[in-house]
Design goal:
Length: about 325
């Protein structure tokens, strides 16, 4: 459509001076029949302009039912791939294709396929944070919102491989009594929270409840008052009578937590690594910006493309997840 350089992984064009980004993005959405789907880990300005804000499961569910012609996925690459696999006839855009995921990267498709081959007779359950190529070797995809229920939908003696997040896998094993074989992967954001610093915060704010995502390490989950997906943590904080929370997940969720609960205080859990930025932001998620979103809508680039043969296989476990979730009312 346009001759635009996207060699950097995003449209590197200046935004004309004086442009009102919010108004222009809204106008282009209307004119192009486009919707913006944003993950809770996006920056607040992107969440505010999105048509849908949610966790990975909600984004996949919305992608499955929208009749828009263009989907702009403000999240990371595997989320764009999932949307494209669900909606092969729609144009799926992402503001910056460099928005990857350390957890998905910890599970290369060729090594995962080899692992699966070494364990014949095992069912394969993959977390949604995987490439399309890994999903193509999977029986059913899960998210942190439905992992427990989907694992429990298998017979108790079913032999299961679970990948790639070992922390989530360990957590699901602990709450279901299963003994799934786990892939050794982790997210660099969720695995860095400091037990010591969180315990110190709990001492400083004894009334605060600790909310933790199951991608966190076991030592954090053990002391958490609530373990759940981003959507579940948000729901819990909203329904709780408690007024203060320590939040052990990517800090983007604080935007919606504060918006929905202006009378409550949310404290981001601190990371372990003193040499890091000291925050709990996902550097991949934050590659998407309002300026890149504006250019993505304007030039309809970069577009998510998934190999057709891979997509044909990957849609099966994604559909199975959506079907099981619908039947369970999740
Ligand atoms: S927070 Fe972790 S799991 Fe989520 S996109 Fe970033 S690297 Fe991946």
């Amino acid at each position: 459509m346009f001759d635009v350089d996207i060699s950097k992984g995003y449209v590197d064009m200046p935004v004309p001076e004086g442009v009102d980004l919010v108004a222009e993005i809204e106008r282009m959405k209307r004119e192009k029949n486009a919707v913006v789907l944003a993950h809770y880990y996006q920056s607040g300005d992107i969440q505010d302009i999105a048509d849908y804000v949610g966790d990975s499961l909600a984004l996949a569910q919305w992608a499955a039912k929208t009749d828009a012609s263009i989907l702009v996925l403000c999240g990371v690459h595997f989320m764009g791939e999932t949307a494209k696999i669900i909606c092969p006839d729609k144009k799926v855009l992402i503001p910056d294709v460099n928005a990857g995921c350390s957890l998905a990267d910890s599970c290369p498709a060729d090594r995962f396929a080899e692992f699966v081959k070494q364990h014949p007779g095992y069912k394969v359950i993959s977390y949604v944070n995987t490439s399309a190529a890994v999903k193509a070797h999977t029986d059913v995809v899960v998210t942190s919102s439905n992992a427990k229920q989907i694992v429990e939908s298998f017979p108790a003696d079913e032999k299961i491989i679970f990948g790639p997040d070992k922390n989530l896998g360990n957590y699901i094993n602990s709450v279901t009594g299963r003994h799934m074989l786990l892939w050794d992967g982790a997210c660099h954001v969720h695995s860095q929270f400091s037990l010591e610093k969180i315990v110190a915060l709990k001492k400083q704010y004894p009334d605060a409840l600790l909310l933790a995502h199951p991608e966190c390490k076991r030592e954090i989950l053990i002391i958490a008052d609530k373990v759940g997906s981003t959507a579940a943590l948000l729901r819990f904080a909203t329904q709780s009578s408690c007024k203060r929370f320590i939040v052990a997940t990517e800090s983007g969720i604080l935007h919606e937590m504060k918006k929905s609960n202006p009378d409550k205080e949310f404290i981001p859990a601190p990371p372990d690594d003193a040499s890091s930025c000291g925050c709990s932001e996902c550097n991949f998620m934050r590659l998407n910006t309002m300026k890149k979103l504006y250019n993505t809508l304007k030039y309809e680039l970069p577009e998510i493309v998934v190999d057709e043969a891979i997509a044909r296989e990957a849609i099966k476990p994604i559909r199975r997840m959506l079907d099981i979730s619908a039947s369970l009312g999740i």
